[in-house]
Specification:
Elements (H helix, E strand, L loop, with lengths): L7 H6 L2 E6 L2 E6 L14 H17 L5 E12 L7 E10 L3 E9 L5 E13 L15 H11 L6
Antiparallel strand pairs: 1-2, 2-4, 3-6, 4-5, 5-6
């Protein structure tokens, strides 16, 4: 199964979408050596990215024409993650604009390594190059100008 839209960072990490339906998602991740920390276990940032993406996909699985952005995420690490990982996300509740989710990461032996809760906001996914594009869909110099002006940084 392929991701519905390209997500460059997810592609870079090598995530594989295994399930995406009915308020649930499952993503597999086979960490490479560059995804490890100094203890030679999966870096917490890679684990949190897996949780973020799997929870967002669980939220989006009930309305696939929408995108969603992370509003808040809390992660608890139970034990070091080693080897191939499986992330599972579940939609707990949704409103017209928000989704409340939870996610878990399991190692190759099925041991729970991390748990998270997340809140996501549904946003319209507009075509790149169309009119009235939200700044999240802008790329290149135009996107940099928008991001910098939003932060009060001069682009001159």
């Amino acid at each position: 199964m392929e991701f519905q839209v390209p997500i460059p960072f997810v592609t870079h990490l090598g995530f594989e979408l295994a399930r995406w339906a009915d308020g649930e998602a499952e993503i597999r991740f086979d960490p490479a050596p560059e995804h490890l920390n100094s203890f030679l276990v999966v870096h917490g940032g890679a684990t949190m990215t897996l949780l973020d993406v799997v929870m967002a996909h669980a939220a989006r699985s009930v309305q696939q024409d929408m995108g969603c952005v992370t509003i808040e995420m809390k992660t608890s690490f139970m034990q070091a993650a080693r080897g191939a990982l499986t992330g599972r996300g579940r939609l707990l509740h949704r409103t017209a604009t928000m989704a409340f989710t939870e996610g878990q990461v399991f190692d190759a032996q099925g041991k729970l390594c991390a748990h998270a809760t997340g809140t996501f906001k549904f946003v319209k996914r507009l075509p790149v190059g169309g009119k009235d594009i939200h700044s999240l869909n802008r790329t290149g110099a135009e996107g940099a100008d928008v991001a910098q002006s939003a932060q009060g940084i001069s682009t001159d």
